[in-house]
Amino acid sequence: MEKYDLVVVGSGAGLSVLNYGLQMGLKCALVENAKLGATCLTRGCIPSKVLVHPADLIREAEHATRVGIKFRVEDIDWDLIAKRMWSQIDESKEMEEGLSHVPNLKLYKGVGEFIGAYEMQVKSVGSGKIIGHFKGEKFVLASGARSFIPPIQGLDEIEYITSENFFGDKFPKKPWESLIIIGGGVIAAEFAHIFSAFGTKVTIVEMLPRLVMTEEPEISEFLERNFKKHMTVLVNHKAIKVATQKKIKTVTVQDVDSGKEIELQAEEILVATGRRSNADILNVEKTGVQTDKRGWVTTNQYLETTKKNIWCIGDANGRYQFRHKANYEAEICNNNIFAPKEHRKSVDYSAVPWAIFTYPQIGHVGMTEKEAIDKGYEIYVAIKQYSTVAKGYAMGFSNNDDDDGFVKLVVDKSYRILGAHVVGPHAAILVQPFVYLMNSGFTCVLPESSGEEDIPKLSRACPEGGSFMPIYRSMVIHPSLNEVTGWAIGSLRPVNIKMEHHGHNHDHYQ
Question: Would you list the domain boundaries of the chain?
């Protein structure tokens, strides 16, 4: 039986840990059951954005009428769009070829599953034949996640689309005439934007009361209002039954409140109701790794699982399923595996940013207003619209427009930034400076103290670390959209700040 110093399961962010191990001269194994590069490269963020950008251009052309320019989309070259998308996905072939020649590395292309303590076998994806059997001294689980398929009557009897097979053998030769999307989260919203812009008649079915539930209610409402200009949006509706009638697929949906049922028809159905763990495929329980009630691998602040010498990073631990977060965890994991124990680093998720590449675009970092209040913070909140700055007006936004984007800031009573949320053009770019500010507490750590036990970022910040004061004291390029975020602090209003009054023995809330 082969024995390896380091076994990495998953070829996304796990490749960073693998590369580090190889540089250390370790005998390594990599297990991957799909294309190398994992979700982000082959069936997620990168290929989807190749589709998002043309969709954005179509919507921007429509918006241009606001400023006196009329464009007409004469043709959509779907073949060229697809070719550009596949060129990114196909980089996995070069990666596989390159890794096959790396010394001290064995690549197992198949499904890995634990069969004992630190012991794994790998089965071929197609035949289920065992193609590998080995032990490892250290394991890193970077095994990702897969689409959650809800228990809808008839769903297992028809063909349907998921984010996995869409970027595979179900990729359409042209945009569908009509599409029903079951789900209203990030993946559902991005696909809805893409295909509605390409001319597909899109219907979103979401059982929850609003779209993208991770976002501020105002942003969910803003997105739904703008989506309804181009598609049908049914929130508070649950898909209960699907069927195929000739070449048309039907979805029966039920109003969550009234119980009333509606039958929808479309050429295709996309299921985008969330993600689920791959831990069940790995049989992690056979090596002593515990999972939570939803099946995600349990990790501590050092990314260690409940089994010594087994770590878990990325989507597999169920925390913030974004590639940049997985890359961050890979760096922490590298340190904690290979550095002396006294130099271990803990993860900090207080400033994890993300963007939803819909139209309008959404940017997010930190807490929502409700999350901050629920965690006991006394807060200020600010909202500022794009139309209130010169650049926003120049771009065609006016007060009371349905698509007049805005920024929302959540700040505690010491002016520390707890959350920043943007909806509108360039939201991903506009929210990023707040990520830097929220991490600024690190700059106040003296080099000689770097070997000490990690102190949470929010506890060790210097007096102005993580606050909005650097914005307050900075010049902001005029006229630019940076003024929307930079000047938002002038709109801060107390939400639940306790005001102390002499002569009273109770708190007064403003």
Answer: 2-147+276-343, 155-273, 353-509
DSSP-derived letter for residue 140 is E
DSSP string, 144-187: -EEE-----BTGGGS--B-HHHHTTTT--SS--SEEEEE--SHH
Record the pTM. Answer: 0.92
Multiple choice CATH, 155-273, 3.40.50.620, 3.40.220.10, 2.40.50.100, 3.50.50.60: 3.50.50.60
Q: H or E stretch including 299? A: none
Q: Answer yes or no: are the C-beta atoms of 463 and 412 closer than 8 Å.
A: no
Give the pairing of strands 119-123 and 275-277.
unpaired
Identify the helix (H) or strand (E) that includes residue 112. strand 111-116
- What residue type is assigned to position 44 of the chain? G
- Residue 501: what pLDDT? 55
* Ramachandran sector of residue 320 (left: φ over 0; alpha: ψ -120 to 50; beta: rest): left
**AA identity, residue 243:** A
Question: What is residue 435's three-state secondary structure?
Answer: helix
Distance CA 315, CA 145 (A): 6
277 neighbors 291 (Cβ within 8 angstroms): yes
Q: How many CB atoms are located within 10 Å of the residue 100 CB?
A: 11
Helices marked H in 181-319 — which ranges? Answer: 186-197, 217-227, 279-282
β-pairing, 178-182 vs 310-312, is: unpaired
- pLDDT lower than 70: segments of the chain: 441-465, 500-510
Give yes or no for a contact between 24 and 46, defined as CB atoms under 8 angstroms apart.
Answer: no
Q: Is the peptide bond before 479 cis (omega within 30 degrees of 0)?
A: yes
DSSP 8-state symbol, 298: P
Burial readout 201-226 (b: 16 or more C-beta within 10 A, e: otherwise): bbbbbbbbebbbeebbeebbebbbeb
Domain 353-509 matching CATH 3.30.390.30: the answer reads: yes
CA 10 to chain centre: 18
Count the Cβ atoms, other than its own, within 10 Å of residue 358: 26
**What token pair was written down for 128?**
């289920």
Q: What is the pLDDT of residue 444?
A: 47
pLDDT in tens, 326-367: 999 999 999 999 999 899 999 999 999 999 999 999 999 999
- Asked whether the domain spanning 155-273 has the same topology as the one spanning 2-147+276-343, the reply is yes
**Cα distance between residue 419 and residue 383, in whole Å:** 12
pLDDT of residue 506: 43
In words, the CATH class of domain 2-147+276-343 is alpha beta
Sequence-separated (6 or more) residues with CB below 8 Å from residue 502: none
